[in-house]
Amino acid sequence: xxxxxxxxxxxxxxxxxxxxxxxxxxxxxxxxxxxxxxxxxxxxxxxxxxxxxxxxxxxxxxxxxxxxxxxxxxxxxxxxxxxxxxxxxxxxxxxxxxxxxxxxxxxxxxxxxxxxxxxxxxxxxxxxxxxxxxxxxxxxxxxxx
Length: 145
Description:
This protein is α/β, with parallel strands linked by helices. The chain has 6 helices and 5 strands. A 5-stranded mixed beta sheet has the order 2-1-3-4-5. The longest helix has 17 residues, at 3-19.
């Protein structure tokens, strides 16, 4: 399996968020070519500003593995993580982060600039299915106007 395969799975999660009128961000966590956790934004549903796709997927992965570290896992997320999620990902020591669309307004890079907020050993890849991820976000916000 390649990055685009798993990003499509994250996009399926994002579409579920879209259908539930949540900001359409989706995430999956992969370990040894197997999806071990999924998540999508549930901020409105749970009335919880921390219920981002990444946080929900991380919590599920920690529970599944019985561990607080994900050094050999990869997170696929449709949109660049915000600073809160970047902090959680740092502490998880996740092995890799792959995201589709940049988020100039709320992404971690708005605050961190070129300095990575992730664990020094975390590998970051960007732009995977970026056009599809961006289009989903634009469609969501156009529909809300």
